[in-house]
Amino acid sequence: MSNDLDTVFAALADPTRRAILAMLLEDDMAVTDVAEPFEMSLAAISKHLVILTKAGLISQEKRGRVKWCKLEPDALRATSVWMQGFGQFEPVNLDAFERFLETELPATNDT
């Protein structure tokens, strides 16, 4: 479980990846649509998506010629359970997580 937690926390450590998760809270998105608001290459976004996929936070599937990304909402469950062990954290509420991401990332979403 430690390796899984390390992978999830490492994935969440990057602001670009957190912004991608916030975008995917709304709906599934094509990789090109995910990349659109960021000032970086499609290859760079793809690297971020690979990290999120390896952490289990998103899944990707090919539909025709387009690769789509989907948020995996249960992916934070183990992380939430681990944090609850400290007694000072509430279970991860995805609605609250969405509000947190929206307040933390307004500048990223506006680019």
Key attributes of the depicted protein:
globular, 3 strands, 111 residues
Molecular structure report:
This protein is α+β, with helices and mostly antiparallel strands. Helices cover 56% and strands 13% of the residues. It contains seven helices and three strands, in the order H-H-E-H-H-E-E-H-H-H. The chain has helices at residues 2-12, 15-24, 31-35, 42-54, 77-84, 94-104, 106-109; strands spanning 29-30, 58-63, 66-71. It has a three-stranded antiparallel β-sheet. Helix 1 (2-12) runs antiparallel to helix 4 (42-54).
Topology (SSEs and partners):
Layout: H1 2-12, H2 15-24, E1 29-30, H3 31-35, H4 42-54, E2 58-63, E3 66-71, H5 77-84, H6 94-104, H7 106-109
Antiparallel strand pairs: 1-3, 2-3
Question: Can you describe this structure in just a few lines?
Answer:
The chain is α+β, with helices and mostly antiparallel strands. It contains 7 helices and 3 strands, in the order H-H-E-H-H-E-E-H-H-H. The termini are far apart.
Mean pLDDT: 85
Q: What is the helical fraction, as a range of percent?
A: 55-70%
Shape: globular
Radius of gyration: 14 Å
